[in-house]
Amino acid sequence: MKLIVGLGNPGSQYDKTRHNIGFEVIDQLSEQLQTPLTIQKHKGILGKGSYNGESFILLKPLTYMNLSGESIGEVSHFYKIEPSDIVVLYDDLDLPVGKIRLRQKGSAGGHNGLKSTIQHLGTTEFNRIRIGINRPAAGIPVPQYVLGKFTKDEQEMMAEAVKTSANACEAWLTKPFLQVMNEYN
């Protein structure tokens, strides 16, 4: 079984914010893979499905970003999912808006949702898809920026990044992550 996690914050006030881009990819995948998110447990909302014989879970942690690992840890332990069978999607300040980067391991890079995930999985060796949101302009605090909405110009690029990220996750259900990295990076 594989676990696909989108990081974000629950609540309508966070919809379509930069920090919730992981949730948007999960929503896209839910539609694409016809897997509704209807199960509320393990501190998250999830959907279970199968694609070409591969079972998977889509997860949106409902713990708020800084505690995302609590939900991810519970789901991975309950379903006995190895870290190598997990992909985490999240916003990244160090990539230009709309750019995506796939990696198999790495540090949290200052991202609190990833810090929590690493803490609860006990490893840095899980797959991830970083989705670029760029850094804020001078004088704009990072928390204010990541909880803000995309500009009109950015929205089109982000819609494409969400679709591409969802397609990469779908490809991963039938191919090794390294192969998907080579195709999508």
What does this structure look like?
The protein is of the alpha/beta class and 185 residues long. The protein has one domain (2-184): 3-Layer(aba) Sandwich (Rossmann fold), CATH 3.40.50. It has helices at residues 21-32, 68-78, 112-121, 142-146, 152-172, 177-184; strands at residues 2-6, 39-41, 44-51, 54-61, 86-92, 100-103, 127-132. Helix 1 (21-32) crosses helix 5 (152-172), helix 2 runs parallel beside helix 3 (112-121) and helix 5 runs antiparallel to helix 6. The longest helix is centred in the last third of the chain and has 21 residues, at 152-172. The mean pLDDT is 97.
Structural topology:
Layout lengths: L1 E5 L14 H12 L6 E3 L2 E8 L2 E8 L6 H11 L7 E7 L7 E4 L8 H10 L5 E6 L9 H5 L5 H21 L4 H8 L1
Helix pairs in contact: 1-5, 2-3, 5-6
At a glance:
The protein has 185 residues and is of the alpha/beta class. The chain contains six helices and seven strands, in the order E-H-E-E-E-H-E-E-H-E-H-H-H. It has a single domain (2-184), classed as Peptidyl-tRNA hydrolase (Rossmann fold, 3-Layer(aba) Sandwich), CATH 3.40.50.1470.
